[in-house]
Amino acid sequence: TWSYIRWFHKHTGKVLTTTDTMVKELEDHGLHTDIIPWTRGVDRDIFYPNTTRDKSRALVCVSRVSKEKSLEDFFELDYPGYRKIMVGDGPMLETYKAKYPEVEFVGAKRGKELGDYYRMADAFVFPSRWETFGLVMIEAMACGTPVAAYPVQGPTDVIDEGVTGCMNDDLKQAVKDALMLDRTKVWEGSNRWSWERAWRIFKENLV
Predict the structure, then answer these.
(1) Phi and psi at residue 116, to the nearest 5°
(2) Separation CA 205–CA 153 (nearest Å)
(3) C-alpha pair distances (Å), 10 with each of 13, 16, 21
(4) SS3 44
(5) Residue stretches of the chain with pLDDT short of 70
(6) Environment class of residue 133 by beta-carbon count within 10 Å: exposed (0-12), middle (13-18) or buried (19+)?
(7) What's the burial of 166, exposed, middle or buried (CB within 10 Å: 0-12/13-18/19+)?
(8) Which pLDDT score, from 0 to 100, does residue 55 have?
(9) Per-residue pLDDT, 56
């Protein structure tokens, strides 16, 4: 489809895309236009830190429950003493519930209830290897929860290594490292992801 995309954008003044990685990918595929990374943000009235956290020790993942999200890497994570909570709905939900009875599947959550799951997590586990961004990561960070992920597109654009999260080809090690991070610094690092900044980038690049 790249030839069609190049044709479609041949007279485009500017293209706004999600991350620096996506800018490079578009340039590598021959888009000869002005390509701008366009940030994302979160609703800070919903996603915010909690000073009185649940002490139950939990690892949380929020995702569409589908095969391409590599969720089995999270479900099979050997991390004794921690609850594994899966938030989300999708076509593989019933299959995974039957296969992984030790995982807590709580279904889709929205608003403050979703924020509460981020806040209760000691670490947010993001096992997907195929993302252009990964909005759930910055929602977790806005709640002060560090992210553990693979060093792939999406996480590499969103996570400040050793500050807001940790990346490793060994997901268990990424979790171990993320659990050592300062939640206040995670929250502080999340503040670069704001809808105000997203709007400013859009406004400054209007043609």
Answers:
(1) -65, -35
(2) 25
(3) 9, 15, 21
(4) coil
(5) 53-54
(6) buried
(7) buried
(8) 72
(9) 78
Taking the CB of residue 192, how many other CB atoms lie within 10 A of it?
Answer: 13
Q: Which residues contact 30 (CB under 8 A, 6 or more apart)?
A: 2, 6
Closest CA to 204 of 27, 37, 76: 37
Decide: 142 and 121 in contact? Cβ < 8 Å. Answer: no
C-beta separation of 141 from 115 below 8 A:
no
Contact 132, 18 (CB under 8 A): yes
Residue with tokens 């594994």: 84
Best CA proximity match to 186, nearest among 158, 153, 151: 158
What is the Cα–Cα distance from 18 to 23, expressed in whole angstroms? 8
Find all residues with CB under 8 Å of 182, minimum gap 6, and list them. none
Partners of 167 in the β-ladder:
149
Q: What is the pTM of this model?
A: 0.89
- Looking at the DSSP bridge assignments, the partners of residue 35 are 15
Cβ distance 184 to 162 under 8 Å? no
Q: In 3D, which of 89, 133, 139 has the Cα closest to residue 117?
A: 139
